[in-house]
Amino acid sequence: MNEERNLEELFKSLQGKFDTELPQRGHEERFMAKLKAAQKPKGSGLSLFSLWQPYAAAAALLLFLTLGYLSFYPQTDMQDQVARISPEISQTNLYFTGLIEEQVKILRAEDSPLTNKVLEDALNQLKILEDDYARMENDLLNGGNSKLILSAMITNFQTRIDLLKEVQEQIEMIKNFNTEENENISI
User: Fold this and answer.
1) Residues 152, 134 contacting (CB under 8 angstroms)
2) Is residue 97 situated within a structural domain?
3) Full domain range(s) for residue 112
4) Is the dihedral of CA 140, 142, 148, 149 positive or negative?
5) Nearest to 157 by CA among 82, 94, 68, 77
6) Around 147, how many Cα atoms within 13 Å sit in the side-chain half-sphere?
7) 170 neighbors 118 (Cβ within 8 angstroms)
8) Which among 98, 88, 80, 81 has a CA at the least distance from the CA of 151?
9) Half-sphere exposure of residue 72, counting CA atoms within 13 Å on the CB side?
10) Are 153 and 89 in contact (CB under 8 A)?
11) 173 lies in a domain?
């Protein structure tokens, strides 16, 4: 309520002091000309943005073209690249990988508290050998001695299979030992 009284007093004090005359002819045009003059950059007439604008457009176009290319033409995976260098190793890889996966499934089925440690160690060793194989693939793709690397890759597969056979034998020995111990216990 106090604010209303202050506003009324303000308007009463300003009464008759408002400018009610129309501006002179051409006032708007002069105002717009002054406004445009104030907006123009000083100096050479070219802004830094206008100098870099074509480069920014070219960079954006290049970015979109690169993203489009990568989405429509994905990079070939390691197996495809190795197959181009040596089709034999690709076939060997498929055969041994299937065989190793089958043996790992069989070993996992034998998992028990007695064989758990042996199985974990074997899986860790397999992981190390798989990492070594991946490094050999990279070496092969980077132009290393292909005959030597291919031989090492096959040896890696053979080592993995030998490891799995040895672990299978150890698990059988653990199971047989446990069975013999249980048979010797008398009531």
Assistant:
1) no
2) yes
3) 78-179
4) negative
5) 94
6) 0
7) yes
8) 88
9) 6
10) yes
11) yes
pLDDT at 156 (0 to 100): 92
Amino acid at 103: Q
Both tokens of residue 69? 């290319």
Six token digits for residue 182: 């249980």
In a domain, 35, yes or no: no
Look at residue 71 and tell me if it is in a domain: no
Give the sign of the dihedral formed by CA 119, CA 122, CA 128, CA 131: negative
Instruction: Report residue 74 CA to chain centroid gap.
Output: 14
- Structure tokens belonging to residue 120: 């974990």
Q: Of 67-71, 87-91, 145-149, 182-186, which has the strongest mean pLDDT? A: 145-149
Q: Quick: pLDDT tens for 127-148.
A: 999 999 889 888 877 776 778 8
Number of structural domains in the chain: 1
C-alpha span between 89 and 76 (Å, rounded):
17
